[in-house]
Amino acid sequence: MEELTATHFLLLSAALFIIGMMGVLTRRNVIVIFMSVELMINGVNVALIGFAWEQNSMVGQSFALFVIAVAAAESIVGLGIIMALQRRIDTIDVADVRQLRE
Amino acid sequence: MLPGLETVNPDLALLTPHLIILGLALLLLAIDVIVPRWRGAPMAYLTIIGYAAALVATLLMIDTNETTFNGMFRADDFSVFVNIIVLTAGILSVLISINYMTSRAEPGSMPVPEYYTLITFSILGTMIVGAAGDLLIVFLGIEMTSLAAYTLTGFARHRTTSLEGALKYFLLGLFASAILVYGMAWTYGATGTTNLTEIATELTAFDTAGGVEASLLLAVLLVIIGLGFKVAAVPFHMWTPDAYQGAPTPVSAYMSVIPKTAGFAAMVRLLVQAMAPLRDEWTIIIAVLAVVTMFFGNIVAIAQTDVKRMLGYSSIGHTGYMLAALAAFGASSDLNDDLSVTSLLFYLLAYAFMNIGAFAVVTWLQDRGRGVDVEDFRGLASQSPYAAVIMTIFLLSLTGLPPLVGFYAKYYVILATVDADLIWLAVAIVLASAASAFVYLRLIATMYFSQAEQPAPEGSTPFLGAGLITMVAGTVLVGVFSGQVIDLAQEWVEALTVPF
Amino acid sequence: MSTEVLVFDILAVVAVIAALGVILARNPVHSAVALIVTFINLAAIFVMLHAEFLAAVQLLVYTGAVTVLIVFVIFLVKVDDLPEFYGGNPVQRIFALLIGLALLGEVAAAILTRSAIGASDIWTAEAIADAGGNAEVIGQVLYSEYVLAIQITAVLLLVGTVAALVLARPASATLPDRVKRTGLISLAHPRGADREVAAALPAGLEASRRGETSGVRFDDRGVILVDNAEAFTDQTAWGGDRLEGDD
Amino acid sequence: MSDLLFLIPLLPLLAATINFVFGRRMADAQTAWLATASIAGSFALSLAAFGNQLDSDEPLTQHLYDWIPAGLFHVPLNLYVDHLTAIMLLVVTSVSLVVHIYSQGYMAGDPGFYRFFSFLPLFVFSMLMLVLADNFLVIFFGWEAVGLCSYLLIGFYFKRHSANQAAKKAFIVNRVGDFGFATGIMLIFWKFDSVVFSEVFARLELVSVDTLTIIALLLFTGAAGKSAQLPLFVWLPDAMEGPTPVSALIHAATMVTAGIYMLARMYPIVSASSDAMFVIALVGAITAFMAGSIALTQFDIKRVIAYSTVSHLGFMAFAIGVGAWVAAIFHLFTHAFFKGLLFLGSGSVIHGMHEEQDMRKMGGLRKYMPTTYWTFAIAAASNAGIIVFAGFFSKDEILVGGWLDHQYALTIIMFGAAFFSSLYIFRAVFMTFWGEERFDPEHVHPHESPRIMTVPLILLAIPAFAAGVVGLPPEDGWIHDFLEPAFHVEEHAEETASAIAIFQEGEEHAEEGHHVSTAMTITFFALSTVLAIGGLAIAYLAYVAKHPAFDPRAWAERAGPVYDLLYNKYYLDEIYERLIIHPLYWISENILWKIVDIEIIDGTVNGVAATVNYSSNQLRRVQTGFVANYALAIAIGAVIVIGIALALQSDLLG
Q: Is A7-101 assigned to CATH 3.40.30.10?
């Protein structure tokens, strides 16, 4: 590990991605789940930028920029749903939101 | 200008259908503000006219096969077929929505203008996926479709289940999107490009003797998982029944076709076009997913009592058949003989008619104050024989009985799998279809052999009626003329391999 | 070990610890703060990767906009109501941990055996510096190769806006003006609703008269009593856009 | 012309669809005229097609589209008109047209009027598809579709229990035949790799004669079901529960002759096997004789005609069996007119007698309904084979054909059947229209039917009298010249020497037919005439002149058991009941139900169903409603998929 290589960044990206995933799996607060997904997306961005750095290309950076933009659009929608639901049944606990089930 | 960059000189004519749809969406938004009186039916007319115009523009582009925006946009015949599927499905969805939006089937009011706007945006997203020449465009198109779909699922804001369906769909969709884009990142890392045809070229260079490089395989797998969610493949399907049940019924109908088409179009673009050199690896994964999906969907559908939920599971089952079509890819290196993508496209078109049709009959009942339980179909044959006959046609088509379109759809998929020497997959399709017959026949039996307990449904829903007739005609005629359709599809699919 | 690696390691470790903080903190506000820490660390790492522009975007969009939005929502929701851990089912947590470790193992195996590396492009650090810096280059790239993507993203953000509008705006805004007027006038009426207005109210209010929904009550004089205007207008029972007897 | 062929079946289909969908909201007259006009259009087009074929040996074909285009199984949907089809088109559309007009009077005021006028054109569509088919799948489609329409129309008065029973019987009995037909088609596809007629005929030499025999017999099973041959004819007399115009169109003129048409169409296959030919001739002869004898004892006027139909179908099958397929089609042609007329006439009688069908309660009707009487008499004479009437010439050719094929014993049986034909039909005429009035004048006031019903009778009476001219001179008439090229064309088109060789065997009979000596012709003319006049005379003596030597009641008593046998239709229904239905019930109840069904099948099915249900119920529990669980499912799926794929397909472990 003398030199900084893409492996470093990829391991960091995998760590963030999987921590985010575990957050989605374990939390029941909708907002925290939402934050966990943001973590996953950031993990992806690290990977993209790491690859771009490794290959001396701009493609990864540009891609990451669009991923950030998409994440922003998603967060608008997500927070909209959360607001509507909260107004409707006064909770953001996903465990309370389970009328639809077998 | 920096080195290595080219001035963009896009050929916007290639985007005509997309631009029409975009213009329509903006127009609908503007009308809401400028002419509020046009909310409702006039808006729906406008939407349908817009879709029809885009359809015409699409048909004029047959055999164009060009790219623009530095290869990011591919106006090839594959995109033409995707456009045809989604625009047809769009027209049908709008037709069955008009009466529902003003009926009392949902508590509270729904903002009509935004409804059509969002459906239009969702269609635009799917059309973008269909014409994508780059991973990034696929991703953006899928996201556009999905964002609109999440919102539409929660459109009945005054019903908690609707919002719940939207929330689940949204959270899991986000999760899957992250997985998908991670897979795209890995693809980029391994090949150094995001252009689909260039990826294919790069992948050919890798030596796959003794197993594929793990990072490459990881890229393929993450993409399959991410898209598997979008098309509702087991075990990534969990959102489907809840979202279908929760969403307003016309939205469930729309959701069963348009986002699914986006998912499959993306699969074709990514797997068939870009990752064709790895087909030995991914076809087998897809085949296994297909079998699991078709059996799971059809078997669990049997125990359902809510018709929307049942159709949700049945749609999972149908995803299985479509995946089977995809798994048959690569039987021969020559796409001209390859039925896989062709049969997949045909299946999607067939599915648009019969499944939106089945949901339309549910809508028809809801508009008349009935519920969506299997019990609500009791004795329908004696009370509204036409509705029962129409529903029977759709259900039989979903079962796969000749001469309805569903039969041909399955027939071509089976043919594709047999051509690919995947006999076990063909057998699985037949067995799963047999299991699915339980599901549909039970509903038919309820309509014909039970005594009605509720008063006869009454009401007037002219648009829905027109939509139903269109879909019955489609279910019958596309089946009857399947030969022509499949020939066209075959011809167009060949465009996938042309690098131009 | 070069300084570069050391700096990276420190930043990465902090980012990962903060990420763990996001998913482990009991209080969502703490989660949000941990998220901000992660984002800032990542921005720093982006700088190391010669992605200065992205680092700025990371700070502005994520740390700035998104996190503020999240915190805003947290405060809109009563903090007392915020649920804690998904405590009821430890099995789920154990499963999640196992799954996470398994996936980490799989991905790590792929990372460590990686040999498929895309061909190198021309944008070395020197080339970028010659061309006027990262922001200059990324701008050029975006507006040449990625024009289409930018357009689509613009539409995507519009979709997000429309979606948020649909979901988050109060229902009363979509009710026909007449319903709004009659409803609000009756509220403002010194004696509550008069009979005429009450008769014109949607059938759904009848349900609330029977006490099926909370927030709106009728007293024995037939006067509508509501806790606040929102409770009155945001009734599930309005039943469509039309008033009863409208046609 | 070729390009317009599709309109022939399409017009009735359109009319049927419109009437079915909108009929309830349309006036009765509108639905009726729409249907009639569509048939008239088809008739006009058929005439044009026929005219085209008159001076052309080139069949008309129209390629509609590829029904199943891809893969192993290539089935084009073509419409195909050669001389044989042209004649059938004419028969089907003309009789349909007349029946449609007639039905407007007959069905007037019926609550199911629009339903009737959507089923009837639907039937015509199906029948036309059957006739126009150029491959086995399309003919099978038409075959099943006419069966379905017949089923719907027999059970038209679905509130009547007997109508439902009859419909069910027709349905079940026809399934037996269809099963044989379908098996035959599958065998053909297996052996010839094609279902297109011309391709199959061209490859005949590739298949052994034994296989051809099996195929021919299977095809004949199908024909026996549809064309009411022994032992499957039991459904046809019961089918008279349907409205009388239906009996005329479907159960006399068109659908029941589909089997004969099919055998004639398949003649190259059928004639390649002499064993199959003999079986067909034998069954035809026995059917003709048995049905004719049963008809002697029946009192229900429609049943007499129904058994007469069965008998004449036996004649046609016999003709096929002895290689005189031209004669069979000739008889089909004349029979369609006179039998259709007989049914319509009987319908007119029933209409005039206020739904009375028992001839014992009729008599002396000729002065009340003269038009019906005269047309009925013409049809009866034709049916009886009185010389110069159409039926005489066609029937005579069948008998000659039998004799030339050296089936002397069977031909003699056929003479018997011909005698019965005359006897029973004039018995019906005399019982109905002559003699004393046996009805109750207080309640029944016989009257002539309205113009809309009598005009069709007159229209049909013309061909029933004169259609025989197409067969003149005997054995070498125009119809021979016209029909025989039907197969020659294919031969020349294929130019396969061996195919011709096989074909020749069957062709010999026809060739011989051209060299019938004048003496023989005259002998047969004389014999038939004597028998027909004899039948007429006996019927006259017995029922009009009341000659004591011919008192039917005395004869019935004298014949005792024979009479009972005939009166009870050879106890066929009872035999079926005892031999098939009872044992089936017994077996199904005691073995199939109690052991196989309950123990094995129920066990298995319930087991499977229970397993499916159980797994369904278990699997659905996965759907807990928790988002976290759903995400977990995705994650577990992802880990498993990635793990297995990495282990098996990557270079990590290898």
A: no
